[in-house]
Structures are given as C-alpha cells and as structure tokens.
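Comment thread on ticket #2218

A.B. wrote:
> Attaching the input chain for the structure job we discussed in standup.
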Amino acid sequence: MDDLVATREELVAELLRARFALEAGNLAVWDVDLSAGECHWSDAFETLQGRRPGTLGPSLEAWLAHVHHDDRSAVRDAVATAVKVGTDFSVCSRSLEDSQPVRWIESMGRIVRDRQGTPLQLLGVSADVTERCRLEEQARQDHAMATIGQQARGVAHDLNNLLMVILGESEMAESDLPPGAPGRESLEEIQRAGRRATELTKQLSAKPAS
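C.D. wrote:
> Ran it. Output below, let me know if you need it in another format.
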C-alpha cells in the first residue's frame, strides 16, 4: 500500500513538473476525460480564454463559447476527428473577448487510449500565437504588393513600347506637314501627351528603393 501511495505521489509530482515546464514556455495545458465528458483546464488556459482561473465551465462547449463564431466549427471538427481517428490535431482559432483585441490561439491535442484502443483522454496544449499570425499576414501582404508591383512594371514596359511607336509615327507625320498646316497642332498635342505618359510609365517601371 505504501508503495502504491509513493508511486502515485511520484506521478503527481512528475505531472506538476511537466505542467510547470509547459506553462513556463507559455503553453497552457488542458485535458478532457472522454468517458465522463469532463474537461480540466489549467489556470493558464483559462487566462488565455480571457477568464479568471476556476471560472471556465468543465465542458468543450464552455471553451467553444470563448472561440470566435467563425472558428468554432474548425475547433469542434478537429477534436471530433481526433477522437474518432486517433490522430493528433492542431487548430488555430480567434479568441472572443469584447474588451480585448482579437487574439489567435493555437491548440494541439493527442488522444490517449487503453489497451483495447478505446479513447480515454484527450491531452492538449494551447498558446497565444497572435504575433506569429500578424507577421505571417504582413508577409502575405508584402508578397501580394510585390506581385502587384511586378505586374504593374510589366504593363508599364509594354505601354512604354507602344508610346514610343505612337511618338515616332506622330513626329514623322508632323515632319511631312508645312508650318500652319491643318492637323499639325493635333499632332503636337499627341506628342506632348505621349511624352507625359512616357514619364509616368518610367515611374511605374522603376523598382522601389530597397
């Protein structure tokens, strides 16, 4: 009996050390007893959801109530698939806090089964990945702007070639007309407009300074 108590105490101590290590790395731990349908949240996880420790209900629905409504299906489906198939899962969702800016939370989970393969427990960790998501979104925007700029330079190059043809043809046509001849003023206006357009295309074609 004493050995059993000692073993249990060692397991509890090991669990506490593991939880401390995870939370020291800004990872909030949680688990779900699948047979009882009861969830256990760490203080760090409840804080991550914008709740005071001990106030988040012991159910998956209580968690989902703090997930942005557009992301709830993704979280619910990820958990359901993990339980059914037995695979690990990772899902990102936005927190739902009226008084705070939107935060992105990444949650990862793993199913624990008994010897017969019956799912017993879902172990999970969650972390605030708002800054990572912000940087990824900024990178996507920068890439999109670079692509648009590249396309604009390509169009400007083609347009510039066309303008050169128009300017050349209008100058040749003007040289064939005597001063004061009808149409000469129109050709001069075409050349002025063409030169202004050429300057614009040069600006578009120029690569931004790095």
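A.B. wrote:
> Thanks. Noting for the ticket: The chain has six helices and five strands.
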